[in-house]
Automatic annotation (TrEMBL):
Name the record gives this protein: (Fe-S)-binding protein
Residue ranges of domain Cysteine-rich in the record: 3-83, 129-224
Domain of life: Bacteria
GO cellular component annotations of the record: cytosol
Molecular-function annotations in GO: oxidoreductase activity
């Protein structure tokens, strides 16, 4: 199986170690990983802002670059959700290349859980960890149980992270609340966004968590900004960094 690594634009520009950690992790597990040159953005920022005409060429470029691979793996729930659930507006329903990309794009932990069926990791991370579950990961990819749903679901991210030795889990009171980022929502509704972020940080930090982990660096970017400005005693890390064995504070 040839697997293409799709790196979100903000990870590429601001948190490249998340991409490197994802690559290293997959290669350690024996996955044949390719990084398609010329990849850019999934188009989510434009789509969320209502700029549909600007989104279409980006979506078409994505499909053009990734359609020839058996699977596409992305260290971001929101970007994966964009490709899987929102590209249909830009393609004919019978477009085989689009259908292939749509049905074979996976979030990193989802791929490890559903396709690789990972059972063991020789990695240690002896810290108190809490999990921030992104809205896209829960509500669109169904990576875990959301409080408004009665359908029981395995928490795929938690299941994979539990393979790491030494983690002491910390449970926030509201495990599936939004962080408040929401892309341009954080710009258009800055005060509301910041208060939502502070509430998430207080919940996790108040339970004694050292590290807030997530599949989405966009959520963690928002939270990290508040943490640094307000000097809150907690750190953030992408799950790929923990699974790859990065030390505390790699984000």
């Amino acid at each position: 199986m040839s697997v293409a690594l799709f790196v979100p634009c903000y990870v590429d520009q601001l948190y490249p170690d998340v991409a490197v950690a994802s690559l290293e992790l997959l290669e350690r597990l024996g996955v044949d990983v390719v990084y398609p040159e010329g990849q850019t953005c999934c188009g989510q920022p434009m789509a969320n802002t209502g700029c549909v005409d600007d989104t279409e060429p980006v979506a078409r470029r994505m499909v053009e670059l990734f359609a020839d691979y058996d699977a596409i793996v992305c260290p971001s729930g929101s970007c994966t959700a964009m490709v899987r659930h929102h590209y249909a507006a830009f393609f004919d329903a019978d477009d085989a290349r689009f259908q292939h990309v749509s049905h074979h794009t996976y979030e990193l932990c989802e791929y490890l859980h559903d396709v690789v069926r990972l059972q063991h990791l020789d990695v240690n991370f002896p810290h108190r960890v809490s999990l921030h579950q992104s809205c896209h990961g829960l509500r669109e990819l169904r990576l875990g149980q959301s409080s408004e749903s009665m359908t029981p679901r395995t928490n795929k991210v938690r299941t994979i992270l539990e393979l790491v030795n030494g983690i002491e889990w910390v449970e926030p009171d509201r495990p599936d609340d939004c962080c408040g980022f929401g892309g341009t929502f954080a710009v258009n509704e800055a005060d509301v966004s910041a208060e939502m972020g502070r509430a998430r940080i207080a919940d996790h930090c108040g339970k004694g968590s050292e590290v807030m982990a997530s599949t989405d660096m966009s959520c963690l970017m928002h939270l990290q900004g508040l943490i640094r400005r307000e000097k809150t005693p907690i750190q953030v890390m992408h799950v790929a960094q923990i699974l790859c064995g990065r030390p505390l504070g790699s984000a």
